[in-house]
Specification:
Chain lengths: 310, 282, 310, 282
């Protein structure tokens, strides 16, 4: 079964990627799974300068979910290019670099730097991280600033660019449209929902930073809905993410309209999940009498009479 | 150090004290690679409850199996406690950096354990004891004496727990020739007090040189141990716990602040869980 | 232990209420629990005319969550007042009527009608239902329309009014502020998150209406976060709701800043949950050395150094 | 009809066919109130997985216990299947409207079951059979004959399943004197076909008057039964399934469209699960 998929001009050998922040820079997981067999490796968010990240505790478990407030800890672009990228290249991974800036200027600079570097398949523009004080989510909450970030990056790179959007908005379609207008080749939907949890015995927040980002199966219905809303209103290439913990979960995203998926929290629990899903996906297509991914994307059956009522 | 991801059969899972379980898992692959101080991440039950794997230290390492010692705390350890021999568990490991062994093979090594901190300490004691039997102790000042009379490395366990029932595995240490001292918070066994009281006393009373101190227990105990050992020029190794998701260094969730003016974090799962006292801010 | 609490001028004997839509009109649950022992009974959303609701299937289970698309099926205000309210009164329930309109005019009319009726403790203004075509969520997504609905209702009633807000917004604080400006006595946070799920074997959406509202433990971190954000920025009385399935879960809301809580999905699973929580809440206060609910509300301990980083 | 919410002990839980379980639960309170056609909502496991209770029909009602017959489908029924006698389950019930009994105590009553639809049908058959023993059959045209010779009510079970293994509990029906006819979709037992084929034939061949028809099974079967029985002036009762949350009429989640021009819904859990064919749109 041919599992090739295309996100704008980004061609992926299969549609199962690993999500930013859950795969480090690939080194840790390499002993467990062959990076060259992934549809793509999205790196931990990279910023211009190294970032230490937030105070611990940075993790809390919630019902079917995970709260994190890592705060974009990363080695910075220089060390990434020098120390981390060569490894990913050697593993023959399809590398998508997730970038994050505190200002338009930083996004511009990062785009410039990566435009000149070989061995990168695309950039994912993170305008949706809830765990930082400046930049991040701020940009992704308004259509205007979303468009501007994308324009800025677009102006400096010929690489395929994906806009990674936040679910913490009233109208995801509006933000999606702005990102595409700004020059995105595709969208990654969704980053984490803002959430918090409290240890009632100590009366302290479970995260030192109080509020963090909620991921995992708990948020899947929200993620699938956003993919569906955007896919139905705009005809743009979407990579779905949010709570994929099984082949069935991944399939929901394809049927809702995604051309590829990313696995985050699911990977932390089962490092081999992407390969399992890849394998089972082919079987599913066979069973359903579908010849490729393309014919599955957005192929949801709705009774006409009911669709009217939506 | 190659980590494994595999489903392994449970060969033993028994209560050894109220709420304390000893589990043995058959895994030549993990056992073959494992070192004291390392841990495994266990999916305690299929499905969402709990969602994440749970980290447990290697309590004992044989050639074909590992032993875990755990306390039932919440959902994860509860469902572990309900598994039976013959069932399989999904394990990832061995993970993390092991305890470095004492550089010297003579003098005393102090093992400080608070509560469940005892878990990784047994594996360490076994390894040190084994090595001290194999390697000769270095010559003493009065050279010329036979091997026999050389003062071998002496291992001291300084072990504190809430109460008598929570003091476990003492016999296993004694079998190794470890000198065991215990205290309890409520005085129900041994003296009333904390493991750190024992540490203070041992520093005074200890005969020979102290080659290294190892500590595992709650954060306040570790802080206190670090304070006591400050400027003593004795290597101090601390085994830390932190909430973990991946357990292998990828998610950056399990941070501990590194020593230094600039804010910088280390990963407990990958850079630790064993740290030298100078590396981290507790 | 005195569990009395106040939401503006609305005085509740205890802070555990049942949420709208999960308790019908009280008749079904009366054999299982004494309605007079609840802090309050919030009725199913009432509209001017009876509404049939949406096509089935209307329910789907998701990881730690429940999707519903009931669509505000209700008997309409006339039959409610005639057939349903007398029962609630007879049970000595503290009745809060949840009202829903498709236009400002309908909200006004409903407010007028209920202002003249005895035995009602307050109104909850639903501007956050994701399951209807007109009205509902539309009003609750913008500060302007939120304020207008509240002003309209305020103009016609002297009853305490609660604004029930939607989590499907970029900035909950902004909406909360608008509701209070409009004249709300307090806020109910939160209604359901928009979500969907797909049966991958049939490739059909699990809900006939495709998109529905997500409730249950899965959304609790989002709900607690919104309560916290609003409580910290505005000093307004809040009733928390979203995924309360245990005493610990309820406590999170109080510590985050709620003065009362509502139980929805949790009630569908365990009809006696509100009484259990009421009982255990008193024990918790005792244990923590707190003398009443008031001293628990918003009483979260945060290290100063960490708070700075929020 | 008073519903109960209580934790009840399991007294039996055994496989009776691949993937089919028969469970007995001790509950004099529920059993004392229950009628055939009603159901219980079970919390199949503490915690979140699955979140909601699961509805299961009363398969048999004794004075102190109830029996459930269930097929393992997903998480809920899976965890049910793993419970053991002696454990407790959290039950809510009895819920819903029972099957009305046939008005007449003579002639034939047809019970149409497809697949798991057999579950509530046994309780119904038992109740009808019991009543027909207690009440005398009405006088036949030839009056004056002894009680013995009066033609009693005859119960016919028309039962279809996927395959032989899925045809269960037939002996229990036979013990009641029910005449059992079976078909399977794959022809592995009885003839190949659907329960509705049997219904069509029975309508033709049936000797006396048909007092009532009861059907429980998948929606397409019920539709087909309703079509066959249209204009036959024989009472037809259908037992429906719909996704449920509360099971007691409060959440309005389990709707089925009511007959009539205006759109209007009934609740399967409270207005049903048994409906007369004229009440609903299938
Ligand atoms: C490296 C390491 C080694 C450990 N070794 C042992 C051991 O040998 N024996 C033993 O009894 N315990 C050990 N622990 C602690 C053990 O992991 C927790 O007790 C266990 O995870 C609790 O899970 P639960 O679901 O039972 O309880 P929960 O109710 O889920 O959690 C209770 C508390 O346990 C901690 N915890 C929960 N999940 C995690 C997680 N994924 N990672 C880290 N901490 C968590 C949190 O502080 C939480 O508040 C170790 C922890 C670490 C980090
Ligand atoms: C009134 C009634 C009586 C029933 N009686 C029986 C019986 O006697 N024996 C039997 O084997 N089955 C019976 N069922 C069906 C049974 O409820 C489902 O098979 C069971 O809920 C499946 O749960 P699961 O977790 O195993 O599977 P899941 O994988 O969770 O669900 C599989 C399918 O079961 C149905 N289902 C799941 N949850 C519910 C729910 N809360 N309410 C209704 N349907 C649900 C849905 O259609 C779902 O797609 C009855 C259903 C109803 C409504
Ligand atoms: C521990 C952790 C770290 C993350 N770090 C990043 C990041 O650096 N950049 C980013 O764009 N998203 C980050 N995310 C979000 C994920 O990439 C993903 O969008 C989100 O978690 C939803 O998918 P999931 O439910 O499969 O995890 C992180 C998520 C987690 C759980
Ligand atoms: C089946 C169902 C019906 C609901 N109907 C209403 C309604 O009529 N009006 C309303 O304001 N909220 C309604 N809600 C939302 C709940 O009142 C509550 O705000 C939400 O479910 C979150 O709380 P929970 O997680 O405890 O259920 C409904 C929720 C459910 C699950
Ligand atoms: S737990 Fe993921 S980096 Fe340590
Ligand atoms: S399941 Fe709630 S009304 Fe029927």
């Amino acid at each position: 079964m041919n599992l090739k998929t295309k996100i704008g001009k980004l061609v992926l050998q299969n549609p199962i990627l690993v999500a930013s922040g859950c795969f480090g820079y690939g080194e840790e997981y390499a002993p467990l799974l062959d990076l060259s067999r992934l549809g793509g490796v999205v790196t931990k968010g990279i910023s211009l300068k190294p970032r230490p990240g937030n105070s611990p505790p940075r993790l809390a478990e919630t019902p079917a979910g995970l709260l994190n407030s890592i705060g974009l800890e990363n080695v910075g672009v220089d060390r990434f290019v020098e120390d981390k990228l060569p490894f990913l290249r050697k593993q023959k991974a399809c590398v998508i670099v997730n970038i994050f800036g505190e200002s338009l200027g930083e996004y511009r600079k990062l785009a410039e730097i990566f435009n000149d570097i070989d061995g990168i398949a695309g950039l994912e523009i993170n305008i949706s991280c809830p765990n930082v004080e400046r930049g991040g989510l701020e940009f992704g909450l308004k259509p205007d600033s979303t468009r501007k970030v994308l324009e800025t990056v677009r102006g400096k790179t010929s690489l395929p660019i994906l806009a990674k959007l936040s679910p913490n908005v009233t109208d995801i379609v509006e933000i999606a449209r702005a990102a595409m207008t700004g020059g995105a080749d595709g969208l990654t939907l969704i980053n984490t929902l803002k959430g918090m949890a409290i240890d009632v015995n100590t009366r302290r927040p479970k995260l030192a930073r109080v509020i963090g980002g909620l991921s995992g199966p708990a948020i899947r219905p929200v993620a699938v809905r956003m993919v569906y809303e955007v896919a139905r209103k705009l005809s743009v290439p979407i990579i779905g993410a949010g709570g994929i913990d099984s082949t069935e979960a991944a399939l929901e995203f394809f049927i809702a309209g995604a051309r590829a998926v990313q696995i985050g929290t699911g990977l932390l629990i089962d490092p081999r999940l992407p390969l399992t899903i890849g394998r089972e996906l082919a079987g599913y297509l066979d069973n359903q009498g579908l010849k490729d991914i393309e014919s599955l994307v957005g192929n949801m059956l709705i009774e006409k009479s009911k669709r009217r009522k939506e | 150090m190659v980590m494994q991801l595999s489903r392994c059969p449970i060969s033993k899972n028994q209560v050894i004290a109220p709420g304390y379980f000893l589990m043995e898992i058959e895994s030549p692959e993990i056992a073959g690679e494992a070192e004291p101080g390392q841990f495994v991440m266990i999916k305690t039950r299929d499905g969402l409850e709990p969602l994440l794997r749970r980290p447990l230290s290697l309590h004992r390492i044989s050639s074909t199996s590992i032993e875990l010692l755990y306390q039932v705390i919440g959902k994860g350890t509860q469902s572990l406690s309900r598994t039976r021999p013959g069932e399989f568990l999904d394990l990832l490991g061995p993970l993390g950096k092991p305890f470095p062994l004492p550089k010297s093979n003579s003098g005393s090594t102090l093992l400080v354990a608070g509560g469940m901190g005892i878990a990784p300490i047994l594996a360490l004691a076994e390894k040190i004891a084994k090595r001290s039997k194999v390697l000769p102790a270095p010559r003493l000042r009065q050279a010329g004496k036979g091997q026999r009379s050389r003062a071998p490395l002496k291992i001291h366990l300084l072990y504190g727990a809430k109460n008598k029932a929570n003091l476990v595995r003492i016999k296993e240490f004694q079998k190794l020739g470890v000198e065991v001292k215990t205290v309890t918070e409520d005085g129900s066994a041994g003296r009333k007090g904390l493991a750190t009281n024992l540490l203070r006393e041992s520093l005074v009373s200890s005969p020979g040189q102290i080659s290294a101190v190892y500590a595992c227990g709650p954060r306040p105990m570790l802080k206190s141990v670090a304070r006591i050992m400050k400027n003593k020029k004795i290597p101090l190794y601390l085994s830390l716990e932190e909430m973990m998701a991946c357990g292998m260094g990828a998610c950056l969730g399990c941070s501990v602040r590194a020593k230094g003016k600039e804010i910088h974090y280390l990963r407990v799962c990958q850079d630790g869980p064993v740290f030298e006292t100078g590396e981290i801010v507790l």
